[in-house]
From TrEMBL:
It is a single-pass type II membrane protein. Its main location: Golgi. The lineage of its organism: Eukaryota, Metazoa, Ecdysozoa, Arthropoda, Hexapoda. 3'-phosphoadenylyl sulfate binds at K29, C30, G31, T32, R33, R112, S120, K243, G244, R245, K246, H247. The active site is at K29 (for sulfotransferase activity). It catalyses: alpha-D-glucosaminyl-[heparan sulfate](n) + 3'-phosphoadenylyl sulfate = 3-sulfo-alpha-D-glucosaminyl-[heparan sulfate](n) + adenosine 3',5'-bisphosphate + H(+). It is an enzyme of class 2 (transferase). Disulfide bonds join C229-C238. It is found in: Golgi apparatus membrane. Residues 20-267 form the Sulfotransferase domain. This is Heparan sulfate glucosamine 3-O-sulfotransferase 5. Keywords: Disulfide bond, Glycoprotein, Golgi apparatus, Membrane, Signal-anchor, Transferase, Transmembrane, Transmembrane helix. GO terms for cellular component: Golgi membrane. The gene is LOC108736724.
Amino acid sequence: RPPTLLFSKQFYPSATRRLPQAIIIGVRKCGTRALLEMLSLHPAIQKAAGEVHFFDRDENYYRGLDWYRMKMPHSYPEQITIEKSPSYFVTPEVPERIRAMNSSIKLLLIVREPVTRAISDYTQLRSHAATAPSFTFGTSSPQRSFQQLALHSNGSINEAYRPLAISVYHNYIHRWLETFPREQILIVNGDLLIEDPLSQIQRIEDFLGLESKISTHNFYFNETKGFFCLRNETSDRCLRETKGRKHPRVDPLVISKLRRYFAEHNQKFYELVGEDMGWPE
Ligand code: A3P
């Protein structure tokens, strides 16, 4: 054989960019980054860097699957490629677009207690507004509190406020369940991912058909950060400071009011997914 063949793909077929076999579809502020980073501790998982936003942004989607594949990391045939783009969950076109690419793909949906998620979302939006150029938001207007945004002045709930609307999970999950069999979607408990990450990671290894490789040795609690950080053979690392922000204090009466509002919505979500998350009412 001519020597060039020795270096051809036939002999070194291994690492190449592949379309994902699993996607973390959301929900934003529920621990999507922590989940992706934790899963990538598994030797059989390769993660895409950043958020790809292929299925939710038309300008990306119409570039086609080759563009998408090029955003993926190199992987070996026995490995699973995974990406996360939290806005997939709330974008109506996305389930059908993902199904058209791969109808047997595995989907991970991480959820968190809806009021905490809404406050986390508010905290992130507020921090972005604080660092945005003054011409974007104006310098003189003081930032409004979570309570001012979540409740109308007459005390009723401002259901149109985006951080609250995104926490009404049943409004979005139904479309996914109409598009994919229930067994292809794993609901990950974001509150438990914070307290006991391994409990969720082991469920996912099982769901993805992977040998259990991630163990207690891969996590250590960092008192300063107040969260678990990640450990592998080469390094110890925590997520960035934008993950695990301090939340503003919210009046307990407002929290109770919002929890009562979400109780009915949560029930609908439990019924649709067939799982009770046990969120406080
Ligand atoms: P907070 O910043 O409100 O605490 P996302 O990556 O989807 O934006 O989610 C961010 C949330 O991930 C954080 O919200 C934090 O609570 C949660 N999280 C879960 N495990 C974490 C970890 N080990 N380190 C930091 N944040 C973690």
